[in-house]
Amino acid sequence: MAVGMTGAAEARKARGPAQVRELDPPAVRAEWRSWGLAWPAAFTAPPWVTAWSETLGSGRPVRWFVVEEAGAPIGAVPLVMAGDTAQVAGSPDVCDHLDLASRPGREAEVCRALARFLEHRGVRRFDAEAARSEALLIRGWKAAGLAVDLSGVAVTVEMDLPGSWEGYLERLPKHDRHEIRRKLRRLEAAGPVVWRRSQDPTADLPVFLQLFRDSRPRKRAFLTPERLSFFHRLAVVLAAEGVLDLGILKVGGRPVAATFGFSWGDTAHLYNNGFDPAWADRSVGLVAKVLSVRDAIERGMARYTFLRGDEPYKFRLGGRAVPLLGFRARLSPSGGGDR
Questions:
Q1: CATH value of 2-152+324-330 in 3.40.630.30, 3.90.1570.30, 3.30.40.10, 3.40.50.2020
Q2: DSSP code per residue over 188-228
Q3: What per-residue string of b and e applies to 99-133 under the rule 16 or more CB within 10 Å gives b?
């Protein structure tokens, strides 16, 4: 054991201390794919942060801090600075959970270097509105021996996916399985049913947005001019990355429901949805979600997440609740030092 520990210490000494450098957002957008980092949360990856900052950032500039070792990035995080507080960029209305990026197994060093850097610059609080319990930010902060307060703020709902559609249906309780099949048959009786993932977001995004507005008054109210701009910008950047999952459900050639999602790693995410109220009695909103699950299975995705919120339909479709934790860290007023 002592030999291994000595070897690790020598390796760290050979690499030198990790340093933090601030990069302009355009430089991050140009370089981030080449860094070899894990980005567990799409909501804090450069494409999403770009869409958020350009439309909903309220004039608060996003500052990208990159942790480097011998000139090579080992971690990165987007922050918004307000007085003596640093917050991971994003807002809960459009960013479900936040995190940092890190090379595998290096999150403790990333967090240690970041804490030291922020302390030296007078930052006293470091916050993230919500993070998964296994987030690199939480794991790394704890592994670095840094104090943090965690509190439950919400849940996200997700499920592991089997290898086949029938396998998914068989896994559901009998009543829920029967209801899905019944709703599909009833909709098919109204005309040919086609659900497809969009190949032309420019043409299909307005269809989604109209169905989103029409489906419920609260969704119409949610879609302020700023959030409308956000959806347009988000669709562009996600499509450019090849991860946009915009699904349109048509019956007899007429769009009746739509899902807006994205694939990140091995997980398909349902971000939002809408439907034509004239077809509400045919449960087209639920059917569109079910067919997006089927599409994820057919594409070989390992997991499907309904994201933030504990709406009952998510559990009827097989989801389980996963807690989201608020992250609050008070940094030393002494301004850093060796750790």
A1: 3.40.630.30
A2: HTTS-EEEEE-S-HHHHHHHHHHHHHHH-HHHHHH--HHHH
A3: bbbbbeebbbbbbbbbbbbbbeeebeebbbbbbbe
Nearest 5°: CA angle at 272, between 138 and 207? Answer: 150
Averaged over 316-327, what is the pLDDT?
98
Predicted TM-score of the model (pTM): 0.91
**Which pLDDT value is given to residue 57?**
87
Q: Give CATH 3.40.630.30 domain extents, the chain.
A: 2-152+324-330, 162-301
pLDDT the model gives residue 118: 96
Give which of 175, 135, 122 is closest to 40, Cα–Cα: 135
- Per-residue confidence band for 107, with pLDDT thresholds at 50, 70 and 90: very high
**Which tokens in the block code for residue 141?**
């902060």
Q: Residue 133 in contact with residue 169, Cβ under 8 Å?
A: no
Cβ contacts of 74 within 8 Å, gap of 6 or more:
18, 37, 67, 68, 102, 103, 106, 109, 110
Distance, in Å, from the CA atom of 58 to the CA atom of 36, rounded to the nearest integer, reads: 31
> Which CATH number fits the domain 162-301, given the four candidates 3.90.10.10, 3.40.630.30, 1.10.820.10, 3.40.50.980?
3.40.630.30
Look up tokens 């509105």; give the residue: 129
**One-letter amino acid identity for 27?**
A
